[in-house]
Recover the amino acids of this structure.
């Protein structure tokens, strides 16, 4: 599962790098803020999804290795959580990019 998550983070970073030059200076990343200027951030934050997925994956790998409970349930839950987070970040990047190009 971690391999899938790492591949998704690399894909997210690659897609962000591909579209970076085509994006405007401000992009709507902060979708929980009220409508208007408060939702906009610099276009460098388009890399945030891939970086966050990578950080969460590395944290979950570390926590899974440190787990001394003897079972495999907690490491499996952490790996599935990392994949779900990576898929959510992929959907959010797709939603942000399709608002500009579709």
């Amino acid at each position: 599962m971690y391999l899938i998550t790492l591949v998704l983070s690399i894909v997210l970073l690659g897609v962000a790098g591909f579209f970076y030059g085509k994006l405007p200076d401000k992009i709507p990343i902060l979708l929980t803020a009220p409508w208007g200027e408060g939702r906009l951030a610099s276009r460098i934050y388009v890399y945030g999804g891939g970086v966050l997925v990578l950080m969460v994956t590395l944290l979950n790998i570390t926590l899974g290795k440190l787990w001394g409970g003897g079972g495999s349930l907690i490491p499996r839950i952490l790996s599935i959580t990392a994949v779900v987070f990576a898929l959510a970040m992929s959907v959010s990047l797709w939603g942000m990019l399709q608002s500009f190009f579709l």
Remarks:
- The longest helix spans residues 73-101.
